[in-house]
């Protein structure tokens, strides 16, 4: 089973306006959508769609936390979060006049004791793998991630910003930076696939058994104990890239959970991401047959 941890989840509010926003007047929206957000939550949603056992956990509070819990229940995603005093953050995207405006909250201020409760919650589920994804709320530092990685026999993966990757000191089964995060974590140039592989190898030497890097139009690479694998992207009409990185990671984790090779794991991630980028919005696409799609993904050893 793969348990996901989202330390700083959010309610993602998307508000649409027909006209550009104007100051000192009332701007009336024509549409609004609310979704449960956060990297770990997203991964649990994809895993559920792939019939891979998962539990979502993390920190939630207030009326926004209640909304996230209700959304996960409605999607039949097992969830058991630790309650904190302050409300879960509300992140707003305003779409107006062809432009988009993002207004993100920092999140609730969290006491370090919440990490103790979260570690106990994780241990209760005895997962084989744990994914820690997304940003940290005020009051917590990167040692809160290290604490999870070193508190049990589970294999821990992380999907966090490059600067945070640089500060982690525990041993990890996997990390999943994108190209920019890979550059920030290693302070190296990552313009070519070969440079990305070199940077991922350097990151692996810091305690990450596998490094999966999403490279956009250049596909993805996985650097692990058996060397480096590169996967080309599938030829699909790209409609929206939001969620592609989470989808890639979900496919990789699901495949590794099945005991498959690095090549198959990376191909699975690319196949899942291809389904996601082929549709607009943040919803989870139909992933039936996605394990068969990976046969079309071209992989090669580097």
From TrEMBL:
Entry EC number(s): 2.7.1.144
Any Pfam family matching the protein: PfkB
InterPro entries assigned to the protein according to its UniProt record, in alphabetical order: Carboh/pur_kinase_PfkB_CS, PfkB_dom, pfkB_Halo, Ribokinase-like, Tagatose/fructose_Pkinase
Signal peptide start-end: none
Source organism of the structure: Halomicrobium mukohataei (strain ATCC 700874 / DSM 12286 / JCM 9738 / NCIMB 13541)
GO molecular function: ATP binding; phosphofructokinase activity; tagatose-6-phosphate kinase activity
Any one annotated GO CC term: cytosol
Family named by the database record: Belongs to the carbohydrate kinase PfkB family.
UniProt keyword Ligase present: no
Keyword Nucleus included in the entry's annotation: no
Keyword terms of this UniProt record: ATP-binding, Kinase, Nucleotide-binding, Transferase
Protein name, UniProt field: 1-phosphofructokinase
Domain called Carbohydrate kinase PfkB: residue spans: 6-285
Domain of life of the source: Archaea
